[in-house]
Amino acid sequence: MQVGERALRHPALLAQTRPDQTRPDQTRAVLSVATGDHSLHAERPDETAVLVVPRRPDMPQWGSGPPLRPAASTRAFRPCLLPIIRGRAGVGGDPMVRYGPGAAPISVGALLHLRRRRMSMLRHTTRLRQLLNDPGILVAPGAYDGTGARLVSQLGFQAFYLSGFETAASILGQPDVGYLSHTQMVERVTAMADVVDLPLIADADTGFGNPLNVRRAVIAYERAGAAAMHIEDQTFPKRCGHMLGREVVPVQEMVQKIKAAVDARQDPDFVIIARTDARTAHGLDEAIDRGAAYHEAGADMLFIESPESEEEMRRICEAFRGIVPLLSNQIEGGRTPTSGVGVLQDMGYALAIFPVGTAFAAAKGMRDYLEVLATAGDTRGVLGNLIQFEEFTALIGLGEHTELDRRYQSEQ
Asked: If you average pLDDT over residues 96-104, what whole number do you get?
C-alpha cells in the first residue's frame, strides 16, 4: 500500500502493514502511535485511505471493524470526521491529507497530532499517568498565569506545573514562605486547568495542615482540574525547597498525610506525589529513607528535594529504580544541578519540572522594558524585544472568541 508505506515510514510513527484477512481485496495498515492503535485502510494500493480515530472514549472503535469507505466516514460519521490520506505524494514526498471532500490538502505532518488527539480523549489524570509510564522523561515547565499556560501548550509541552513559589510571587508579590492559603491555590489551579488541554501538576505545600486538611486539599485540587499534586514534609511555616532554614516533621506524621491523600482522591488516576525536604538539614540517607516510607504509605511518585550534586541525584535514582517514578526539581540558580533533560533521563528521572524559570524570564523582560520607559520615556527602541499586539491577541485566543461571537450573533 503506497500510501501506508510512505506515510508510515515517518520517523515519529511505528507501523506494520498486513493483508486484511476479512477482505482479501483490501490492504490494512495498523498504525501504532505512542499509546494508541489506529487503522489506516485502502481499497487498493492507489486509492484513498481513511484514518479512523474515535472522537470520544465512549464512541465505537471504528478502526476495529471492516474498513470504512471515504463517503461513509465523511457523511455517516461526521461527528468524528477524520483525515483522508491521498494516494499520491505531496511536496517533499509526503502524502497529502484532506479533512473531507474538497478540503485543501495538508502534509502528512498532521499525523503527528494523532497522539495528542487520542490523549485528549482521556482524563488529564489518566493522560498524565500514561506520560509518566512512557520510556522518555516528561518535561513540565512552570506557568503561573493563563498566558504562560498557553505558551507551554503552543510550544508542544505535554504537561505543565503550577508552583507555590510563582503563585506567591505573582499574586502577593511575596516570597514562598507559607503565605499562600488553600483557597488561593485552589482558585489558581481552577483558572489554570481551564485554559489549556494539558495535565496540570500542582504544588500543595504541606497540604495546608494536618491529615484532615490534606484530605480537603486533595478533593479541592481534583475538582479544580489538577491531574497531580505534591505535598511536602516541612514544618509550618514552610518555605521554598531551595532556601535554607527548612525543617521537617516526623516521618509518621507525613505518612499519615499521604494515607489521607490516597484515601481522599476520587479518581484513582489522580497522582499523589510525596516530597521530602530532609536532604538539606538531615542528609541524603535520611531523605532516601523518608522517600521509601512515603512510597510504602501510598505515594505514586517521589520528589526528593534539593540534592546538591549529580552524584546525589544518581544515588536517588538507583535507590528507587524500578520501584517508583521520581521527580527532579530544576530551579535555575538553585541548590540542585540543572544538568539538562537528557542527563536527567539517563539518570532515571520520570518527570522534570522547571517551576520558576518562566517567572525569572518574565521579570527580566518586564524590568528591561520598564527601565527603557523610565529612562527614555519612549518604548519604540524595545519593540523588537516584544510580542506585538496582533501576535499577543492571537496567543490568548482572540480568534476563537471572535469566531464564537460571529456564530452566536442574532440574524437581523
From this structure: 43
SS3 assignment, position 14: strand
Which residue type sits at 233?
A: D
Distance between CA atoms of residues 105 and 83, nearest Å = 10
145 is catalytic: no
The answer, yes or no, to whether residue 155 has pLDDT greater than 80, is: yes
Long-range interactions of 107-112: CB distance < 8 A, separation 24+: 108/6, 108/7, 108/10, 110/83, 111/7, 111/10, 111/12, 111/13, 111/31, 111/33, 111/51, 111/83, 112/10, 112/12
Cβ atoms of residues 348 and 326 within 8 Å: yes
Q: Is 230 part of the annotated catalytic residue set?
A: yes
Q: Considering 118, 215, 240, 279, which one is annotated as catalytic?
A: 240
205 tagged catalytic: yes
- Residue 220 Rama label (left phi>0; alpha psi -120 to 50; beta): alpha
pLDDT (tens digit per residue) in 346-387: 999 999 999 999 999 999 999 999 999 999 999 998 999 999
80 catalytic? Reply is no
Q: How far is CA 172 from its chain centroid?
A: 26
Q: What are the start-end ranges of the H helices in 114-181?
A: 114-120, 124-133, 146-154, 164-167
Percent of the chain at pLDDT > 70 equals: 68
The whole-angstrom separation of Cα 148 and Cα 152 is 6
Selected catalytic residue, list 230, 246, 265, 295 = 230
pLDDT in tens, 25-49: 433 333 333 333 333 333 333 333 3
CA atoms 393, 394, 396, 398: torsion sign: positive
Q: 382 burial class (0-12, 13-18, 19+ CB within 10 angstroms)?
A: middle
Q: What is the pTM of this model?
A: 0.71
Catalytic residue chosen out of the listed positions 275, 279, 290, 295: 275
CATH homologous superfamily of 122-361 equals Phosphoenolpyruvate-binding domains (3.20.20.60)
Going from N- to C-terminal start, the domains of the chain cover 2-118, 122-361
232 tagged catalytic: yes
Among 87-101, 180-194, 290-304, name the one with the lowest average pLDDT.
Answer: 87-101
CB atoms within 10 A of CB 60: 11
What's the order of all strands across the beta sheet hosting 200-203?
160-162, 200-203, 228-232, 271-276, 301-304
